Here is the input.
Amino acid sequence: MAVKGLILASLVSAICFDSCINADKANTETTTNNTLTNSKIKDMKSYISMFEIPARDILRAINFYQAILDIKIEKMDVEGMQMGILPYEGQMATGIIIQAEGSNPSADGVTIYLNAGENLQVILDRVEKNGGQIIVLKTAHADESGYFAIFLDSEGNKIGLNSPK
Here is the structure.
């Protein structure tokens, strides 16, 4: 299991590194200090660098997210695990769907909110048609900064959507 974990960590690190390199190219801010300071943390564009969505059935999960997000997800098999890699070019965070020992879908943990573009209703309308379940309908944020919704995906993970309209 340690070798599998090392392989996964290496693969994910490579994907994150590539994603960060692409994000840095888009960032015009130059830094002369190579050390990370608290002021640098405050300047981050995103507090999330990557996320994993656990799956019991990798193909079902890939198909679900491809259908609701209208994207192409690359499937990759690595010794003892299967992954679906969400498109990461130009993204601040890398997303992976993973089916592996120890990766168990749950509605009880942290909720990831996906950027749903201008209007999350477009994606939310696809959730139940593709095997998910809506938990919270489109709802305005308390501070009127936009909208959110929450659903269970095809694997039983609680996932949120966020949009300005």
Remarks:
- Confidence is low (pLDDT under 50) at residues 19-23, 25-36.
- Strands lie at 50-54, 74-78, 81-85, 94-100, 112-115, 133-140, 147-152, 158-163.
